[in-house]
Amino acid sequence: MPKGLSMVAADQLWKAYVVSEDNSKDAWTNKWNWILEEYEKLHQQLTEVSAKADNIPKKAPDQRSLKPFPNSVNHEYGWISAKPDFRLEKYGPDIMQAMPLPKSD
């Protein structure tokens, strides 16, 4: 509670804040709800187009497995990264090599 305000005044300020929040929500809905409907229409159209498209590659299901789980993970921190399928560095520690400098004559 701010200094110098009574409990009644602080309560009235809080009630006014809550009422203004509700009014703002209603005002936004009245003014901008049409854009949510447009986004829903666009989403439906894109879903229909992507369902009909033949050239979009389908993602294969993930065949990796986390099993077998260790009996206790307290002493095995990072046990998932020990599996080669779950390593972040798939291609080695540094795949980006700087281009060589031009040879001076």
TrEMBL record:
For this protein, the record's InterPro entries field holds: C20orf85-like (IPR020339)
- In its UniProt entry, the species of origin is given as Agrilus planipennis
Family matches, as Pfam families: LLC1 (PF14945)
Put simply, this protein is called Uncharacterized protein LOC108733483 isoform X2
